[in-house]
Design goal:
CATH class of the largest domain: Mainly Beta
Structural class: alpha+beta
Distance between the termini: 19 Å
Helix content: 25-40%
Number of domains: 2
Number of strands: 21
Number of helices: 10
Shape: elongated
CATH architecture of the largest domain: Sandwich
Radius of gyration: 29 Å
Length: about 525
């Protein structure tokens, strides 16, 4: 019997068993039902005009945050600004978030910035001292330079310099103001001739795990504060005479003492602002200048979270996959099948092609419906859904289908190896579904990351739609749609498991009697 005829025969077997067909259809229905159920509610657009949830987008299109205390002058043409950051301190929230304690958030920032005006979300380049990651150069909100972003460096007084040449900005640092080392360079296309440049301070939302388990113990934290004491800056180039801020104008003589400034405070959150000191400026900032993320450090729902029902659909696929191969052993039909198809490897391949093809098709249809319409359901219920590109939506939908198809093939291989339906189904669920459930519910993040890196559940990374940024402290948990491996990395782990199980199944099928 040719391979195509074998495939046709296996397809006939699958479609004539109502339980198998019903199970696969139920898997798709469950994914859709969970994705379209109005299980979340929010306030976006629910309280009349003005209640819409709107986010900033940076010059490169990503969602961003742009909140800091910024004191600046305008620079026309090329020039530079140099300053000594003499002191850098901060405040962190206590565990319950009701009080503050001394300390710097790891990505608290104080330094120099060149910006295309003062409009939130406009192009910028900055050099800064951070709470734990040393001196960095960051620009256009999503770019970070200055060595490994995961290296921990204790803050200390430092000299900082930014030099603007056309649309290129160079960042440098020095320990003594004499010997300078380059931190990085940034090209900002379309940077106008006149820009703002000066000192800034900011500190992001601070959060931490309690006892390392997000679900069992929760996440604590709140706004943090950074306080930078700057000595009087020196400049080269054509600069305006007056110091200003985004909140209020601060008069200053171009070369000597600034005239007394003021202190600004937000109506909510920690006190922030600026003031003149005898030696220069003191800035207190809270917020961030960088990419916006979902999870503990941000808000919103991702399209990945609309596919929560995938794990239930996966359980049904695992049951059908295991029974599709194991049932023939229980009923003794395997002898008839092997008599008709002597090529046992060809037989196993045909079963995998049929099961994989059907689960991929149903999974793609279900995921496409959820990704397309699930967002609308959430938005109608006032939930802010973080936008994703069409390419990302296609990848998430196709990735969900690949996840289902791969796990179905894995379950089919286990059915051949174990030959008992109940045993094979149990093994498939334990290997494929249980790691994901443990990771999003009870496991600490480190254990969760390890489990989602070595088990077939790694392929859930195919559903991730949001980027992770080293320069943004966040609890990147699977519950929020973040996974330890890239989409292709997770798919590779699943492929290795499928190849190993099917290879073993093919070997056993050839070696033993029916």
């Amino acid at each position: 019997m040719s391979f195509l005829r074998t495939v046709h025969a296996e397809w006939t077997k699958l479609r004539t068993v109502r339980g198998w067909v019903s199970g696969l259809l139920a898997g798709a229905v469950v994914i859709i039902a969970f994705g379209l159920a109005p299980s979340r509610t929010g306030s976006c657009g629910q309280n009349g005009p003005g209640s819409e949830c709107v986010t900033l987008h940076g010059p490169e299109g990503q969602e961003i945050v742009d909140k800091s205390t910024y004191v600046y002058r305008t620079l026309t043409g090329d020039g530079s600004i140099t300053v000594r950051l003499a002191d850098f301190t901060g405040l962190l929230p206590t565990i319950d978030g009701s009080k503050t304690r001394d300390g710097l958030a790891p990505w608290a920032k104080a330094g120099l910035m060149v910006k295309d005006g003062t409009t939130a979300g406009s192009a910028y380049a900055a050099v800064m001292l951070t709470g734990e990651h040393g001196v960095r150069m960051q620009y256009n909100y999503v770019h970070d330079e200055g060595g490994s972003a995961t290296a921990h460096v204790k803050p200390q007084p430092v000299w900082l310099r930014l030099t603007r040449t056309g649309d290129t900005v160079r960042a440098e640092q020095s320990a003594d103001g004499k010997a300078w080392a380059q931190v990085g360079t940034a090209r900002l296309p379309g940077l106008p001739s006149t820009v703002t440049a000066g000192m800034f301070a900011t500190s992001p939302q601070y959060s931490e795990e309690v006892n390392e388990s997000v679900v069992l113990s929760g996440i604590s934290g709140g706004p943090s504060v950074a306080m930078g004491s700057f000595e009087r800056p020196t400049t080269t180039g054509s600069w305006s005479p007056d110091w200003e801020s985004a909140a209020a104008e601060v008069k200053a003589d171009a070369g000597e003492q600034p005239k007394p400034g003021g202190t600004t405070a937000r109506s909510e959150g920690p006190q922030t602002g600026f003031e003149q000191t005898a030696d220069g400026w003191s800035l207190t900032g809270s917020g961030d200048v960088g990419p916006a993320v979902s999870g503990a450090a941000g808000g919103g729902v991702t399209i990945s979270q609309t596919l929560l029902g995938t794990f239930l659909g996966l359980m049904l696929v695992a049951v059908v996959g295991a029974m599709f191969t194991a049932a023939e052993y229980r009923r003794g039909l395997i002898r008839t099948t092997l008599a008709a198809v002597p090529g046992r490897g060809r037989l196993l391949a045909a079963k995998v092609v049929v099961l994989g093809g059907v689960t991929f098709t149903l999974g793609l249809a279900a995921a496409s419906v959820v990704v397309t319409f699930g967002q609308e359901v959430l938005r109608d219920n006032g939930v802010y859904v973080k936008p994703a590109s069409t390419l990302t939506e296609l990848r998430v939908a196709a990735g969900t289908a690949l996840l289902l198809a791969g796990c179905g093939a894995l379950a089919a291989g286990l059915g051949v190896l174990l030959r008992r339906g109940v045993t094979a189904v149990t093994a498939a669920i334990v290997v494929v579904v249980l790691p994901y459930l443990l990771s999003v519910t009870v496991l600490p993040l480190r254990a969760s990351a390890w489990l989602l890196s070595v088990t077939p559940a790694a392929a859930f990374s195919l559903q991730q739609s949001e980027s992770q940024y080293d320069q943004v402290d966040n609890i990147y948990s699977p519950a929020d749609g973040y996974f330890p491996l890239s989409a292709w990395g997770g798919l590779a782990v699943l492929a290795v498991w499928v190849a190993a199980v099917l290879g073993s199944a093919g070997y056993v099928l050839r070696r033993r009697d029916a």
